[in-house]
Specification:
single chain, 206 residues, alpha+beta, 7 helices, 3 domains
Amino acid sequence: MYALVENNEITKFINHPKSMVIGDVRYPAKIFQLWSESELNAIGIYEVVFDDSNKKDEKWYINTNQSYDFDGNEVTASYGAATPKAHADSLYTSQDDTDGLIPNNKLVGDVKVEGLKTTLIRTLKQQVARILSDTDWYITRNTEKSTAIPSSISTHRDAVRTKQAQMETAITNASDTPALENLYTYTEQDDGSVTRPLGELPTLEI
């Protein structure tokens, strides 16, 4: 990506090499391949330098839009300070009602925007539901035919629910975004295994 700088101001971005008119001269697209950096700079074309030092994982943070700056030597694209996503749900208020911002199917006190912890716990519940669905047929068979549920299946299902409760508690109790992010961060242990503090839901050993 390139930028055209005229009178020390960025006037155009060039995503793909193309023929351009700068001043009274038309330059062919090949200059982007054949000319040196200094030659391009001499006519006001600069390759954009991307600075992602402030960019953070969008699972946990809201990044700003990129801003572009020309400092006389190069054009840079950078991010401002990222904002941690809200952990708690935001709710519709009386002021929202006064301003007509509440949908017809919502009331004051209902969830306006789900917080990060809500979405993480919902994802966990969906994972648990998928795991349990693999053995639901044992429950159905027991209900319909009174066939005993194998103890290994009952033990597995109980273990899944126990681990789910532990994981939900860990998510709920995370004090800030770095603590929440750390729960999901995999690291290599002394024994060579790769684990995360949140742990994993049990799998059925067959």
